[in-house]
C-alpha cells in the first residue's frame, strides 16, 4: 500500500500542540494571565520620580528685581514655585503645602522652613541655589551633573522575571503531570500501550511540545517587558532560554512523579497545588525572600522556583550568564533528573 | 502448519484473593469471528486484556501466532494486533482524521487514513472534533484506530454497549468485512443477539471459566429440539408443582413474573400443554411460544439470565 510515511514523533507532538491551542482556557492561563498580572502589578508599583521641592514666595516689599527673581524660580525645572500673600503663607508652610517660604524685602530675601519637616532643608538649599545663580553667582569650581536610571532597579524589573518563573512552573506542572493523569483516567495511556508506539517517543513529545511553548511564553513576556517597560535581558537571550528550559525540566520532573501513578484528577489537582502554593509565597516571586528570617534562606534557595526566579533575575537584571548562575542551574538540574528517574521507575501506563 | 492467532492454556488471573479468571484453555483458528459471551463480571475483559498483553496472567500460557508476551516479540505482536478497549475516550480536541492519523503513524505498515475513514463511514465527519461525535461515531473512530495497522487479529471489548440498533448494525458490518477479508476477530459481549449475528464460534463464560463452546447453532441445538411456552396468570400460582405435573413439560422456570414451560418442539406438545393448563383451571395470559436462543443456553447452564449482574 503506497502512502506518505507518517512520523510517530511528529504526529504526537502535533497532537499535543493541537490539544493545547484548542483549549482557550489554557491559552489564557499560559499567555494572557501573566501579561495581565505584569500590567496590573507593574502599574500599581510603578516607580515614581522623586518629588520636587515646593517653594512659596511672599512679596514683603515688591520690586522689579524681586519679581524677576520670582519668574526665574517659577521657570526652574528643579522646583515648583507659587506666590502666596502673607496671611496664607504661614498656613501653607504649617500644612506642608510648601516646603520653604522665600520672603522678598528691600534687603534681599529671607527663607523660612518648618523645623519638623524633613523636606525643608533640601528645599531651602534648592531655593538658595536657584536665586544666587540667577543673581549672578559664579561657582569657583567647574562642575557637571548627570542624572541616570540604573537598569534593573525598578519593581517591574524584579517582578517580570518572577512572573516568568511562576508561569514556567505552572505550565510545566499542569501541562505534563496533570495531562498524563487525565490521559490515564480516560484510558488513553492503555490504548497507546497496545500499539507499537515507542515509549520514549511519547515522553519526548511532552518534552518537545513543552519546550516549544516555553520559547513562546518567554518571547511574549520578554517582548512585553521590552515594549512597555523598556526592559532588556542584560545577560543575553541565550542564557535566559537555557535557564528557562532547566526550570521547565525541573518542574516537568516533579510533575512526572505526580503523574506517574495517580489516575484521578482530583488527587492530581491537590498534589499540583500542594507543590505550587508554598513556592508562590517562599520563592520570592512578588517580594524578596530576604525578608524571611535568615535561617530560612538556605532551604528556600534549594526550592526549584527560587533557583529559577533567582536565575532569571540574574540574567535579566544583573547581566549574569550561565557561569555566574551555576548554583541555580545545579539546583534545577538536580530536581529535574531526580524527578525523571523516580518517574521512570514508578510510571504506570494503566 | 502455521501457528493459530490465539492459543492459551491454564490461564488464570487473581486480584487480591479473588479469582477473576479461573483457568482457561483456548485456541482460535484464523479467519473467524470468535465471541466471548457472558454477563458483566464473568472475566471476559480480564481475559482479553491478558491476550492483548495489557494484563499479566497470574499463571498459564498465552501464545499469539506462536509468540508469547514479554519474550522479545512484544513490538512485533503489537504491529499485528488491533485493539478496541472498553470505553476509551480518545483525545477530545482532535478531529476524527487527526486521531486516526496519529494511530496510523504508530504502525510500520497499515491502511491509508482515507481508506480507514471510508471503512467506518466517517468521511463526512473527518474534520469534526472527537468530543462532538455521537456514541456510535466515537466507537467507529475507536474501531478505525484498531484497524489502522492493518492487523491480523482484532480485539473488540464490548464494542456496541450503549449503542442504538442502527449504530450497532453499522459496526457489525465493518467487523464482518474485516473477517471476510481474512482477519481474525475476538469480541466480548453480553448481548446474545450480537454473538448470534456476528460470531462463527462462541465461548460462554461465567465465573472466570468457559462453560460452553461451539457455534451459535450448535450451542442452541445442545438444548435439544425444544420450545418454550411463556405466560402470566392473574393471580400468581402458589407453587410450580402444578405446572411440573403437566404432561409434555420437561422443565419449569419463573422469570420476571412469567412462567416458562419447556416442551418438545412440536405442535402436538404445544396443544397437550394448553389443554393441560385448561384441565388445571389455569388461565394463561399473554401466552407466547419461542424457540431457544443463546440466552436460554446460558440459563440452562447457569440457572440465571445473561442480563443479570454477576455478583
Produce the secondary structure layout.
The complex is a heterodimer of chains A (350) and B (311).
Chain A: H1 8-21, H2 24-44, E1 54-59, H3 64-75, E2 80-83, H4 86-94, E3 100-104, E4 109-113, H5 120-134, H6 155-185, H7 188-193, H8 199-229, H9 237-259, H10 265-282, H11 294-302, H12 304-317, H13 326-346
Parallel strand pairs in A: 1-2, 1-3
Antiparallel strand pairs in A: 3-4
Helix pairs in contact in A: 1-8, 2-6, 2-8, 6-8, 6-9, 6-10, 6-12, 8-9, 9-12, 9-13, 12-13
Chain B: E1 6-15, E2 18-28, E3 33-37, H1 44-51, E4 59-63, H2 74-80, E5 81-84, H3 96-105, H4 113-119, H5 135-147, E6 153-157, H6 165-180, E7 184-189, H7 192-198, E8 201-206, E9 209-214, H8 216-221, E10 226-232, H9 241-244, E11 249-255, E12 258-264, H10 267-279, E13 285-291, H11 294-302
Parallel strand pairs in B: 3-7, 3-8, 5-6, 6-7
Antiparallel strand pairs in B: 1-2, 1-4, 8-9, 10-12, 10-13, 11-12
Helix pairs in contact in B: 3-4, 3-5
- In CATH, the architecture of the largest domain in chain B is 3-Layer(aba) Sandwich
Shape of chain A: elongated
> Helices and strands of chain A: which structural class?
mainly alpha
Mean pLDDT of chain B: 90
- Rg of chain B, rounded, reads 23 Å
Mass-distribution shape of chain B: elongated
CATH topology of the largest domain in chain B: Rossmann fold
The overall number of domains of chain A is 2
**How much of the residues of chain A is beta strand, in percent?**
5-15%
Task: Please give the number of β-strands of chain B.
Answer: 13
